């Protein structure tokens, strides 16, 4: 059977409360899939079988997989994962931890950012005991989604504008669970471990493990290398619900001697709300919507990006424009005629200017020097090296006069050439490595003389496009 068939049969088994049969079915289904829905269903089955460590591992992994996918159902699955954590901690007697997870489930149901630093787990006294009470939880209804104020009175007016999120049932479920968790804490001794908080909002990501055979609890011959139900954690906690690499936007660019045009592809751009700030080596843009994290709100770290540039620009001479699907930056080069090796890189959030400068200088490849910059001294030639071939290199060319022997062009230059506008390019070619010379020829010919690159890793595997100067339109010869 396929993994889908195993998963569907596992869901049916959970629905029929046949939890012992459901676990091996999900084990098979999850061998080739990381479906968060199946992980949550298996967590429910493991919880009913009192395999709490295994259940907690599945709930935590389901949270991370749902957050990574960033699909339309991700928030619902993340809400369910936090609620499942709350029920498991309750069964383990960790009532303070259970209340924290239930509150995080409510926050997600209200539409709040997944990575918001809400400080729920910090409600502890000097002895590390949870300070929230049953009465606090009962009164915590001010952010309940979907309220229309039908009850009348001041409370109704306060909640009349609360927006619907589509997760009202999930919010009510977590709200009711909090009363159970905090109700249990009422009768606990002051030194009971269930009063202490040891949970974090975003759990450490468990390592996906191969399914172990179901072993009866009374069996004394369990494998020593993999104890049943042992939770294996990653070496360090995950930094957030969605990795920064998945948040980054698609970017394209082209350049002329005077400017670099960068196109940033992002959906649902609101031009009136957009803030674009230029500096000498970076551009900061906010707010930005993210497909990988659809619930990001203005003010969140993820709602802004710092674009560290591959070269210096003139901020006052740069401009931007926006459409609902794209933001376009036209960046005036600080040094005209210098070709950028790449446009730069995107960093999520705001980055300090001194940090940006370091990043730009470390990531920027060596640019072609301008004619008035000092040239590096060429390396001494090895006298034992074989002489250059006298034949012209067989480079492809569109010239009517046939292939050009660039070696002879360079060897035949004299002092008068230093006054020629092409002298710099001849000197550059003469001092370049064979790989750089090959990149120069390929980029110059394929771009019809409008681009020149010395970076073979950039142009070797693509066709260099024609980039005419501003105000000039490239047309094919007919």
UniProtKB/TrEMBL annotation:
CDD domains per UniProt: p23_CS_SGT1_like (cd06466)
Alphabetical list of SUPFAM superfamilies matching this protein: HSP20-like chaperones, TPR-like
Compositional bias of kind Low complexity: 359-379
One MF annotation (Gene Ontology) recorded for this entry: protein-folding chaperone binding
Region (Disordered): 203-244, 354-418, 451-478
Lineage: Eukaryota, Fungi, Dikarya, Ascomycota, Pezizomycotina
Organism annotation: Cercophora scortea
SGS domain sequence ranges: 394-478
Protein family (similarity comment): Belongs to the SGT1 family.
Span of domain CS: 246-344
Pfam families named among the record's database cross-references: CS, SGS
The protein's name in its UniProt record: SGS domain-containing protein
